[in-house]
Amino acid sequence: MKSYDELKAEPLSADQKLNKKYFPFIQGDAVDLCVPNLRAIEEDGWADWLNNIEELQATQHGVFPNHRSAQEDFLNSLANDRSKIVLMICEKKSNLAIGVISLQNINFQFKSAGVALSASKSNSKFRNPFSALEAMALITQHGFDEVGLNRIYAGQAYPTLTSWNKMLELIGFRSEGILREAFVRGHRVENIVRISCLYENFLALKKLRGSLWGSSKTIREALKAQPKKSFAEIIDGKISEMERKHFSFLFKK
User: Fold this and answer.
1) Cα dihedral sign for 5, 6, 12, 17?
2) Domain range for residue 23?
3) H/E/C letters for each residue in 3-50?
4) Which residues contact 167 (CB under 8 A, 6 or more apart)?
5) How far apart are the first and last CA of the chain?
6) Which are the contacts of 235, defined by CB distance < 8 A and separation ≥ 6?
7) 9 vs 6, 47, 93, 142, CA distance in Å?
8) What is d(CA 37, CA 208) in angstroms, rounded to the nearest whole number?
9) CA-CA distance, 47 to 71, in Å (whole number)?
10) For 198, how many CA atoms within 13 A lie in the half-sphere containing its CB?
11) Which residue in 84, 89, 122, 214 has the fewest CB atoms around it within 10 Å?
């Protein structure tokens, strides 16, 4: 993985200059994580991704309309904000922004940060089915290697995002527990799965693969070997069983 300074010093070909909408901050296999700019709003629909209600059912976005002016204000606020890192997910070949990914609430005392990803299905055609997962791997590795974090975490609507939760296991994330009825969207109430990747998990996979991602081939091989049920599903089942047994004393006559 090349540094920002190394990438900036590299000469660009004529085709690259023509298609260079974004500067690649972190280079990947199928995608690059790029520095956001106004073109993401004006040309690639960054503000509009947060207005697609159907695609946002597992998030808190899409409840109130998102305006381009608000997105521009957010973009401008990033310049001096050291509590988050926000990058565009860009297709490697086209340099088209197809999503946004971030490390949020960076806490240097506790060496932790949250990770979040949002991508538009309607406005983007992932040429690689692992594009979103690779983006997660790239920013997670950056958080450990460059920011010096020890824990990167997230919370996901469950069971809606069970498949995505399971995919994240391939890059070192592990489910830690279930928050009961903690996700609310309109009148729909679900649980939330807390997940995290620790520095020790990252180091183990990096030693094995050379990087957290390795390659698409590496991920496909891990996917084939992965158990049918996610760790979150196993935890959920065990907790429900133990809960019933433990609290049965309350209902005994």
Assistant:
1) negative
2) 4-248
3) CHHHHHHCCCCHHHHHHCCCCEEEECCCEEEECCCHHHHHCCCHHHHC
4) 133
5) 65
6) 175, 177, 178
7) 5, 31, 20, 20
8) 36
9) 6
10) 6
11) 122
CATH code for the domain in which residue 180 is found:
3.40.630.30
Domain for residue 123, yes or no? yes
Q: Does residue 253 form part of some domain? A: no
Q: Is residue 107 one of the residues assigned to a domain?
A: yes
Q: Work out whether strand 31-34 and strand 174-185 pair parallel, antiparallel, or are unpaired.
A: unpaired
- Both tokens of residue 107? 């806490």
**Is 243 within the bounds of a domain?**
yes
pTM across the whole model: 0.89
Q: What's the total number of domains in the chain? A: 1
At a CB cut-off of 8 Å and minimum separation 6, what does 188 contact?
A: none
